[in-house]
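Weekly puzzle thread! Below is a chain. First person to post its structure in token form gets bragging rights.
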Amino acid sequence: MERTTESKDRENLVAVTADSVQLQGNLALPVNARAVVLFAHGSGSSRFSPRNRYVAGVLQQVKLATLLIDLLTPEEEEIDIRTRHLRFDIGLLAERLVGATDWLLQNPATGRLQIGYFGASTGSAAALLAATERPNAVKAIVSRGGRPDLAGSALSRVQAPTLLIVGGHDFPVIEMNRSALAQLRTEKQLEIVPGATHLFEEPGALETVARLASQWFHRYLMPTSSLSVH
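Winning reply:
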């Protein structure tokens, strides 16, 4: 089920079987990691997203393992480039995340670790929906510039503590997140990053996202550990 190629920075290329297809991913396992964060990309992004890779790097520095995977196969990516349809197929993306979650639980290197989700754009809705399918496994969720509203009625069934992060100048998405926040019945929080737009490209904006995510994951995935993130 797994092919692994280890690199000098302890990031491994893995093949994850999920929803009857094989997905490519990058698994980073810091020494003494106690939790792992599964990244859910969206809106045509991939595991090579520089923004998500930056956040993953910050999480790794504070002893959180990370798994960044492509939720679509290369063939599906080609179709989506033309149709822009699959990136909004929240049910499909969620099923892939459920499969990747099961892979983490069965993998000897990660099976003992607490699991969190980090979702971006439409991947946030997929993460929320997938969390309702594995409520005993998924212990925390962070959304960056997400579309949690696309999770629909699943929002009221989410059990994992959920942090929604939105840019202060991303006005339509702010309202979508406020609406989703009202429907969540778990521990929840909305953080608006002043001056930031949808992609958090402004100076310091992505650093703020990474700091907020680190704090949330440490609070709910590693509650007995100390954290120093600046």
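Puzzle host: Confirmed. Bonus trivia for everyone else. The chain has a mean pLDDT of 89.
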